[in-house]
């Protein structure tokens, strides 16, 4: 017999995005990321308990954390696909001919992603909130299979090319081509508050 529970599961078949604060992340920053993801994707956003940054990901020569090792940590701990590890610490990865390149985030398709606020600047909280919202949806977009956008110079999926100011030129929502690729996961574009206003977001559920 088709139970009420099964009916509810069918009714709420949208994917889940799990936000994991890694280390001492301000509550306001977690809320910004959660709200940006929730207004962009047709997903259920939940928050996992805060987790310490793993020492296995620490890179002593530059006193920062390797992003790919943070992704390994999230996978090894059993976090589901589309998990966002959020940290205030600087993170890096190997990029082209650079062994240790500082980044704002890194993601794996159908896997986790990591977002760092370290490089988002201190030029006012509204700009910080806007950048954090955009880089959050950028990395989550990668987990849903989006590659860097070349169709629009204002799409938040464009390659930052090492410049965080690229985020300032980006819109708050994906371009039509990226939205088409996302399919049902993309929410309709609506006239809503800008990313810079997301600092007032309310807490989400935890588990």
Tell me what the structure shows.
By secondary structure, this protein is α/β, with parallel strands linked by helices. The chain has a single domain (14-200), classed as Collagenase (Catalytic Domain) (3-Layer(aba) Sandwich), CATH 3.40.390.10. The protein has helices at residues 4-11, 27-40, 67-76, 125-143, 166-169, 176-182, and strands at residues 16-21, 44-47, 58-59, 64-66, 83-87, 91-95, 98-103, 105-107, 113-116. The strands form two sheets. Strands 2-1-5-9-8 form a five-stranded mixed sheet, sandwiched between helices. A four-stranded mixed sheet has the order 3-4-6-7. Strand 6 (91-95) and strand 7 (98-103) form a beta hairpin. The protein is globular. It starts with a helix and ends in a 25-residue tail after the last helix. The relative contact order is 0.18. Mean pLDDT is 89; it is low at 1-11 and 200-207.
């Amino acid at each position: 017999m088709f139970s009420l529970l099964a009916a509810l599961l069918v009714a709420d078949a949208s994917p889940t995005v799990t936000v994991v604060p890694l280390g001492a992340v301000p509550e306001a920053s977690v809320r910004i990321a959660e709200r940006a993801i929730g207004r962009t994707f047709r997903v259920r956003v939940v928050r996992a308990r805060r987790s310490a940054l793993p020492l296995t990901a620490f890179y002593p020569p530059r006193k920062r954390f390797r992003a790919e090792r943070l992704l390994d940590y999230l996978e090894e701990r059993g976090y589901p696909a589309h998990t966002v590890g959020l940290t205030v610490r600087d993170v890096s990865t190997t990029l082209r001919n650079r062994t240790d390149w500082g980044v704002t985030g890194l993601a794996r398709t159908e896997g986790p992603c990591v977002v760092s606020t370290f490089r988002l600047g201190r030029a006012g909280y509204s700009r910080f909130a806007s950048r954090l919202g955009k880089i959050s949806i950028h990395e989550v977009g990668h987990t849903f299979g989006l590659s860097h956008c070349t169709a629009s110079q204002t799409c938040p999926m464009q390659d930052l090319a090492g410049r965080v100011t690229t985020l300032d030129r980006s819109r708050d929502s994906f371009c039509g081509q990226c939205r088409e690729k996302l399919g049902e996961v993309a929410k309709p574009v609506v006239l809503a508050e800008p990313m810079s206003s997301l600092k007032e977001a309310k807490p989400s559920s935890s588990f």
